Amino acid sequence: MTDLDFYARAVIDGKVLGLGQGSLPEEWEDRLGAGYVDDVRKGRMRRDFGLVEVSFQRVRGIWQCFGAGIQVHRLGRGGEAVVPAPLLAEFGEFGSPVGFAGLDAAVARMGGRLESANDGGSTYHDQFLSTSSNVRVHVVSQVDDPGDGGTSVGDVWSIHLSWLGS
After folding, report:
1. Measured on CA atoms in the order 154, 144, 49, 96, is the torsion positive or negative?
2. What pTM value is reported for the model?
């Protein structure tokens, strides 16, 4: 399996390595390892694994996942240093940049579909929505400084999985 398989599976299933809404911090640590930083504020916690960020809220005293993001753009700055070791072991090298055309093709090969979902909220990113999971893919549409961060127009910036309201 490849990095594109990892991204495409997340887009289609709306989960990261099988984890989704209501999952616990311990489950994420079991799957992605202990290399993370927690940011806790006002009843919410963001657990940052580098490539993957997970959002939790307290529900009856228990931290439960309500969203996750795959921060693909970080690969351009930190390379594989931002990829949790378990992901490297399962999917191999994570390339940068990741072109939207390649991700779109991988999603289609797995039976999924991405549709344009631009809401006019961003000048710098186009949004695409998975028809099967409500996952949003943000794609670079404008670059101010082409030398900054290593991304170009058409590259995947991030993939956002949110289960609030579902």
Report:
1. positive
2. 0.92
